[in-house]
Amino acid sequence: MSDESVAPDAPVALVTGGGTGIGAACCRRLAGEGFRVAIHYRSSEEKAKKLASELDGAFTVKADLTDPRTLDALIKELKEVAGQVDVLVNNAGYNENAPMLAMKLEQYDAVASVARGTWYLTKLILRRFMLRKGTGRIINISSVVGHTGNPGQVPYTMVKAGLDAFTKSVALELSGRDILINSIAPGFIDTEMTEDLPEEVKEAILAKIPMGRTGNADEIADVVAFLATRGNYINGSVLHVNGGMYGG
C-alpha cells in the first residue's frame, strides 16, 4: 500500500479478472498511477480481496460475465461505490482446450459467452459513465493466438481475434469523442494459466520468440498503464507485446 492516500477525486479503473495473472499486475500498475482500482472477480474472491487490501483505495466487485443480470448489478455497485469509471480493462477470459472435432458445443459456448459479456459490459460502461463524462479509455487484452491461430484452441482464438475487431469497430463508432479504445495482444506470458504446460510445449513456444524468453505480466501492465494515462493519439489499434513472436 502506498504511503499517500488516493485522492477522493482520483480516476477509477475497472479491471475484469483482476484478481490473478495479467489482471492483478494491471491493478497494481494502475494503482501506482493514482487510480482507484475496482478489482473484478468471478471465482477468485480470496485473491482479489487480498490484492485490494494491498492497494490504497482499491475495492473488489463480483460479477459473472456470462450473466447480464450480474453485470447490470455491477454497474449499480460501481455507481454507488465509485461514482464513475474512467478506464475499463477488459482482461477476463476463459479457455477450453480440445481439438475442434472433439470439442462439445457447451465447451464452445463457455468460451464465447465471455466475449458476449465483454461486449455487454463495455456497452454499459460507455452508457452510464464514459459518454456522460465525455472521456474514457478502454483497453482490451486479446492474444497473439488471435493472429497466428493455435491448434486445440479454436474458440479461444476466434474470441481473441474478434476482440481486436471489436476494438477497431467501436473506435469507429466513437469517432470524434475523447473515448479511446485499443487492444493489447500479449504473446507467451508467465501466468498461472501457462505454468502447468508440459516442458516440451514451452520449449516449442520459446523457439518461436526472437527474444528467447517468455514475457511477464508486469510487461503487459506497463503498456496498459501507458494507454490509460498517456497514449492520447492511439486509437483502434492492436499493440503486440510478445518479444517478436509475431509482429502484426
Can you give a write-up of this model?
- The protein has 248 residues and is α/β, with parallel strands linked by helices.
- The chain has one domain: Rossmann fold.
- It is 44% helix and 17% strand.
- The protein has eight helices and nine strands.
- The strands form two sheets. A seven-stranded parallel beta sheet has the order 3-2-1-4-5-6-9, sandwiched between helices. The chain has a two-stranded parallel sheet with strand order 7-8.
- Helix 4 links the parallel strand 4 (87-90) and strand 5 (135-141).
- Helix 3 (68-81) packs parallel to helix 4 (105-133).
- The radius of gyration is 17 Å and the shape is globular.
Secondary-structure blueprint of this entry?
Blueprint: E1 12-15, H1 21-32, E2 36-41, H2 45-54, E3 59-62, H3 68-81, E4 87-90, H4 105-133, E5 135-141, H5 145-148, H6 154-173, E6 178-186, E7 189-190, H7 199-206, E8 215-216, H8 217-229, E9 238-241
Parallel strand pairs: 1-2, 1-4, 2-3, 4-5, 5-6, 6-9, 7-8
Helix pairs in contact: 1-8, 3-4, 4-6
